[in-house]
Every structure is written in structure tokens, then in C-alpha cells.
């Protein structure tokens, strides 16, 4: 049984923000009956990489942790953008972690069976580009053997890799779980199918939610690769043609669909790069509603919600969620926001 399954899903809550700003509180299981025939639900099927690597900075002999944060080239396991920390583990809050030993281009790092080189520093002493030695298969095997899921202090018990995989997880390309998808289960998908609610998936390489550094956090999300299958693009077009709503399961789905938008509300299939933030004032052309977790102002996930609702509505949403003890973070409760006409 996984950490996610140990949370009683029957007690999970759902806060619903209607397009008119009305707020409702429901059990999360009510998601199965909230959508109408003709609506389309799109989820991110990316599985999560074991993206936290503990090792040694060879020039100094000091402990280092590298958290893989982004692909340099999609699915090329030799090169990653990473965030570096010094000694410590997930039990310390990220913002309290010690800095890494001084790093320079060419430094070698040992992560268990993996050898890596600091290819270059990226305008911050903790942000770097890593190159792993060896063939693609050996790098992937080394990640599987030595890596651990990225883990934050709000979850005390150790996380296994399967704890951060949703039930629809497919190719491992994400660095943190597309956690809105934890709300989905096969029974829910069957009910949607019976009700005429369509379901499609895309793959998006969801990145870090926090670096522990305020300056770096303001730059999140980093550029993230995505792949939209032909079937997903066709499902979006079909929903739009029937005046159905497109419901994104998570912020990563919003970023992928809006990045692939062609100008008329449809999306272009294939691979692409989602860059920049979606926030207040952004004009959403594809997504009509989002299911997400409980986020706080300043987080990139919360900033994206400002494209769906005004600050007054979001303030009321946060106040009601706090009053009713909604759980935050990746194994927490859920929020469903229907897009409003935001000035």
C-alpha cells in the first residue's frame, strides 16, 4: 500500500469554484458526477523519475544532493538541469537546507553507480547543468537503482517511487508527480465514459514545485517538455465543436494545452516546450476548468490559477479552504475552478 493510498480517499475533500464565483464544498468522489456529456477531461500520464540523487562532490569530498529539475533535451538522460544542496535530507525544510560545496564547471560528482560532470553553472550557485557518463541504458539503470523521489519535509515517512506515480502513469519523464492526477481512479473513468464525458491524456515533464531559494522559486516553472498525442488533440477539437468544456487535471496540463494552442482553440499534436508563466491577465483559449491541489500565493501553481479567477474569488477560496482544514501539497485535497471572465 502506497503513502497516497494510506490517506483515506473517502475523506478527501473537493472545493468547487463555479464560473460565477459561487463556492461549494463536496467529497472528492463527487468528481465522478460533476461533468456533462460532451465535456473532455485531460490528464497528464507522466510517471515520475527518481530525481533526487545523493552523492559526493569529488574535488572536496563533501556530500551533495542534486535534484534533477528539467531536461536539456527531451528524453536524453545524459544531460539535466539540476538544483544542488549540501548535506541533509527531506526531513529538513527545503529553505533550511545547507548550500552545496562551491561548484565549478568540470567538477565531477559521484552518485552511487553514476558519475556526472558539472557541465556549467546557470547564473546561480545552486543551479547547474549536469552531464552523466555512460550509455543511455546505464544512466537510466543508475537512476532507477540509486535515485529517490524528490521529497519534502511535510511528508515524514520515506517515499517509494510508486508513491509518486498516479494510477495512469506511463513514461517516466516528470521530476515531481503530476499530483492532481492522484484524484483519479478507474471507477471514476468508467462513470465518465458511461455519462458521455470524454477522457484523454498527454505527457508533460512536470518540474519542481520548490527549490528552497526565493530567487530561484520566482523563476519557476522552468521550461518543460510535453507531448500531445493525436488522439488528445482530436478530443479537444471534438469537445470544442460540441461546446463541451475542456477540464485540465493539473497545472501541467494547462501549460501543455495552452502552449500547443493554434489560435482558434484547437491544439497542435506532437512535442513542444512550455515556457514562461501563465498568470493574471493570461488569455486561456483551450482550458475551461482546472482540477488542482491547494496552493499558496507566490507559488507558480497558484499564480496560474489567477488566469481562471480574480483575486477576490481566490481569496475567498483560500479562506474557506483554511476554515475547513483542506490539506495542501501533493497528497492533499482538491480544488476545481471553472474559468471566469477575468478582467
What is shown here, in short?
The protein is α/β, with parallel strands linked by helices and 343 residues long. It has 8 helices and 17 strands.
Largest sheet: 9 strands, mixed
CATH architecture of the largest domain: 3-Layer(aba) Sandwich
Percent of residues in beta strands: 25-35%
Rg, alpha carbons: 20 Å
The poorly predicted ranges are none
CATH top level assignment of the largest domain: Alpha Beta
Query: What's the number of domains?
Result: 2
Determine the mean pLDDT.
94
Structural class: alpha/beta
Q: Name the CATH superfamily classification of the largest domain.
A: QueA-like
Please write the string of helix (H) and strand (E) elements.
HEEEEEEEEEEHEHEHEHEHEEHHE
How would you sum up the global shape? Answer: globular
Count of DSSP-assigned helices:
8
Numbering strands along the chain, what is their spatial order in the largest sheet?
A: 2-1-17-16-14-3-12-13-15
**Measured distance between first and last alpha carbons:** 46 Å
| CATH-assigned fold name of the largest domain | QueA-like
